[in-house]
Amino acid sequence: xxxxxxxxxxxxxxxxxxxxxxxxxxxxxxxxxxxxxxxxxxxxxxxxxxxxxxxxxxxxxxxxxxxxxxxxxxxxxxxxxxxx
Length: 84
What we know:
Elements: E1 3-7, E2 29-33, H1 35-40, H2 66-74
Antiparallel strand pairs: 1-2
C-alpha cells in the first residue's frame, strides 16, 4: 500500500529554512505512495521531518506511483475530482 503522504500547496525554487509553518497549512490532498522504494531509487528525497497535528480525518485515495504523483502535482489536479 505504501506510506501515507500529505501533498502541501506551493512550489519552491529553494528549500525553505523552516517547514513548521508550511506543515500547518491545509494539504492539497493525501495519497498512499511507495515512498521507501522512491527513496531507495533516488526519485524522491526527504527534505524535513516535522510533527503534524491531526486536524481532521482526511479522505484517502488510491496508491500512486512516482509518475502519477508528479503529474497530479504539476497539473494541479486532484484525485477523484476532489478540490480539497
